[in-house]
Amino acid sequence: MARHRFTLAALATLAVPGLDVAVTRTFTGGGEAQHDAALLTDRAGTHLVVRAPVDAQAGARLAAEHRVLAALTPGTRARLPFAVPTGVGVLPAPPAFVTSYVEGVRLQPAAVGAHSPLAGSIGRAVAAIHELPSAVVDDAGLPVATAAECVRAVEEIIRAADSTGEVPLELISRWTAAAADGALWRFRPVVVHGGLAAETLLVSAKDDPDQRVTGVLGWAGLQVGDPARDLAWVLGLPSPGAAGSVLETYTATRTGGSDPAMARRALLYAELEIARWLLHGVDRGDDGVIGDAVRMLEALLAAVLEDTAGDLDDEERPPLTVDEVERMLDARRQRAATASRAPVAAQASRRSAAE
After folding, report:
1. Are 214 and 206 in contact (CB under 8 A)?
2. What does the H/E/C string look like for 184-210?
3. Rounded to whole angstroms, how far apart are CA atoms 88 and 99?
4. Are residues 92 and 117 in the same domain?
C-alpha cells in the first residue's frame, strides 16, 4: 500500500531538521512503482520532493542518486543549460530522500518534432552533459569505464541474454558481431548521464514557442562511459525527422571530434534494452515481463530479417545524415508503441524513475 502524503511529509521533517511543511500534495511524477512521493511546500514557499523507496533495490538507486547530486558542484551545474535537483536531506531508516523541486513537465516523446526548438534543446542538453570534465566523475569516485570496458559490459549482457534461451540466435549473432567490430568502438569515453530517457527530461510548457529542456532527473548512473548510451532512447522518438534533428544538433554542439559509429552504437544499446528487460523479468520470475520481452524480440527479429532494423556493421559509413537516420527508423516507427516500453521499463528496474 502506498504511503500517505502526510506520512511522507513526516519522514521529510525527520530527514531535514527544521523543515516546516505548510502544504503537502501527492506527487505522481513517474515513480513507476519504485517509490512513493509527495510534493511539499514549506512556510517560505519553497517546493521540495520527498521520495520513499518501495524496496531495497529502489532504495539503493535513490541513495546512489543522492551521492551523485552531492558531487555536482555549483560550478558543474553552471555548465549545464538546465536545472538539476539538489539533495536536501536523507533519512536512513525508514529510508526517505528529500530533494529540491525542478520546474517543468515530463517530456512526451510525440511532442518532439523535426527541426523543432525542443529537438534542438534535447541535442544541446545531452551534448552539455558529455562536455563536462571527467574530473567531475573521477573526484567523486564514480565509475570510469574505458572503451574496452564498455565493450565487455555489452558482451556480458549478450551472454546473459543468450543463457535464458529466449533470444533468437539471429539476434545473438547480430549483437555478438557488433561487439566484435573494432570500428564500432573507436570512441573517446566522456561523462554520461547513464540513464537518459524521455521520463528523465523535464521541458517547458507546450505553449512555449521556444519549448526547451528545463531539467534533467535520475542521476544515479552518472559515470564516464560511452556517449551513445545517452542517445539510444532518441531513436524511439515517433515523429518523422525528430531523431535525426536531435542527433544533428548534438553532433554540431559537441567539441570532442567526430564519432562516425555513434548512431550505430546507439542502435545496439536500444536493442539491448529489450534484452535487459528480459533479464529483469527472469531475475524476478515475472512471466508477464518475460512474455513482453519475447514479443519485442520477435518483432525485432522480423525487422532484422526484413532488413529494416538498421545496420550495426557498416564500419566505413560516415556520420549519419538526418535523411539516413529517418530511412533507418522508418520501418521501426511502426512498432514504436510496443517497443518503446522496453527502454522505460528496463531503466526503471535499474534506477529511480523521474519525478
Report:
1. no
2. HHCCCCEEECCCCCHHHEEECCCCCCC
3. 5
4. no
Same domain, yes or no: 149 and 297: yes
Same domain assignment for residues 112 and 96: no
pLDDT band at 190 (very low <50, low <70, confident <90, very high): very high
Please state the φ and ψ torsions of residue 254, each to the nearest 5 degrees. -65, 145
Question: Of the given ranges (21-35, 96-110, 333-347), which has the lowest mean pLDDT?
Answer: 333-347
Residues 202 and 88 in one domain: no
Question: Residue 326 — pLDDT band, cuts 50, 70, 90?
Answer: low
Instruction: Mark which of 100, 115, 140 sits at the end of a domain.
Output: 100
218 CB contacts (<8 Å, ≥6 apart)? 65, 193, 195, 196, 197, 199, 200, 351, 352, 353, 354
Same domain (yes/no): 138, 32: no
Nearest CA among 276, 300, 95, 291 for reference residue 195: 276
Distance CA 96, CA 35 (A): 10
What's the whole-model pTM score?
Answer: 0.85
Q: Is the dihedral of CA 317, 320, 321, 326 positive or negative?
A: positive
Q: Report the C-alpha gap between 85 and 103 in whole angstroms.
A: 10
What DSSP assignment string belongs to 72-122? --HHHHHTSSSB---EEEEETTTTEEEEE---SEE--GGG--TT-HHHHHH
- Are 279 and 160 in contact by the 8 Å Cβ rule? The answer is yes
Helix residue spans in the chain (DSSP H): 5-15, 56-71, 74-78, 117-130, 135-138, 147-163, 169-180, 242-253, 262-284, 287-305, 322-330, 336-339, 341-348
The rounded distance, in Å, linking the Cα atoms of 271 and 175 is: 9
* Residue 225 exposed, middle or buried by CB count within 10 Å (0-12, 13-18, 19+): buried
Q: What is the dihedral of CA 130, 133, 138, 143, to 10 degrees?
A: 10
Q: How many CB atoms lie under 10 A from the CB of residue 128?
A: 19
For residue 162, give its domain range: 105-348
